[in-house]
Amino acid sequence: MNNVLYRSRISGTGSYLPEGLITNKYLETLVDTSDEWVRDRTGIKHRHKVKDGQVTSDLAYEAAIIALKEANISANELDMILFATVSPDQIMPNTACVLQSKLKAGDCMALDVSAACSGFVYALAIADQFIKTGPLKNILVVGAEVLTPYVNYKDRDTCILFGDGAGAAVVTRARPDDESTIYSHHLHADGEISDLFVLPAGGSKMPFSQEVLDKELQYVKMKGREIFKHAVRTMSKCCKEALDYNQMSADKVDWVIPHQANVRIIQAVADHFGISMDKVVVEIEEMGNTSAATVIVAMDKAIKDGRIKRGQNILLTAFGAGITSGSLLMKY
Ligand code: UT7
Q1: DSSP for residue 134
Q2: For atom 7 of ligand 1, which residue has the closest CA?
Q3: Cβ of 229: how many Cβ atoms within 10 Å?
Q4: For 231-259, how does the pLDDT look when each residue is reduced to its tens digit (9 = 90+)?
Q5: Main-chain phi, psi angles of 232, to 5 degrees
Q6: Closest C-alpha to ligand 1, atom 46
Q7: Is 137 helix (H, G, I), strand (E, B) or coil?
Q8: Domains of the chain, with CATH numbers?
Q9: In a mutational test of the pocket of ligand 1, which residue from 41, 223, 259 has the highest number of ligand atoms less than 8 Å from its CB?
Q10: Is the N or the C terminus of the chain less surrounded, counting Cβ atoms within 10 Å?
């Protein structure tokens, strides 16, 4: 690739899930569902929920502090903050600026990335590009969501899936002798099928009104079965694309970290891709679908408990509203 001056690596990660829990048993009291059905069909046992007053940037702050410490840099050494979310604190200002202030990061670029569940992979790819071409050296990439306010707890198709959480990674310019590096990323979008997963109200198309509230259009609407099929097809394709591009065979991948939306989607992707589930990081049971946060929370958990080790090949893949999708291959 032309104009590549440097390589980037992940120098630190962190994650934070708020203390509140929404259990399947609790959901049984709200909608016609059962713990057994939800576990069987999604793999989810519970999801986390913020306490009153806790906002997306608060969760991101907790994750970022851990990532910065691990990367051994202070917030004022950051050149950029990329904040992947579809549930910002407010529409304006962007949540990256709010986090910049909370971290006392000082002057740096600060931008939100809206690509739903693919948001973290998109943001990581953007960070990699900025590092590769210089002059930036340290970029904080966050995936954080407070989705519970956008979930209709009368809709059993969606309320069983989503939760709140945050993850963060520091992306740093690699030293010439660093083995650890981001190899490639491949990002895609298909706006032709954007109707599969939408949040109808709150934008210029449908500003908030009494009618919005009466019709409950402030909540996410999803065509679950169709999304399921697209998710499997797209993430499998993205994984293959990453390997083909790097001329790497699947057996050289130590861990695949897919978007955590449904354990059956993850199993089907592993199947299509021809990789054993032993090599797939699955954290959905304890957190549900946290959109832009899932990939980095799962990655951080696997790093912290020793599954992922330095020098291993890690393949991230994600799929989300938009419809967006992508993959990123790295040596951790
Ligand atoms: O992050 C990206 C966005 N979202 C996703 O990736 C979600 C992708 N989709 C899914 O995870 C799954 O499609 C769901 C979990 C949403 C639904 O699971 P499914 O296995 O696709 O169920 P289904 O829609 O095919 O429905 C099967 C049956 C239906 O009953 P009948 O018609 O067979 O009698 C549904 O009415 O299960 C019923 N059902 C439920 N039963 C108990 C649907 N939701 C529930 C529920 N509890 N919560």
Answers
A1: S
A2: 224
A3: 12
A4: 999 999 999 999 999 999 999 999 999 99
A5: -65, -50
A6: 33
A7: coil
A8: 8-173 (3.40.47.10), 181-331 (3.40.47.10)
A9: 41
A10: N
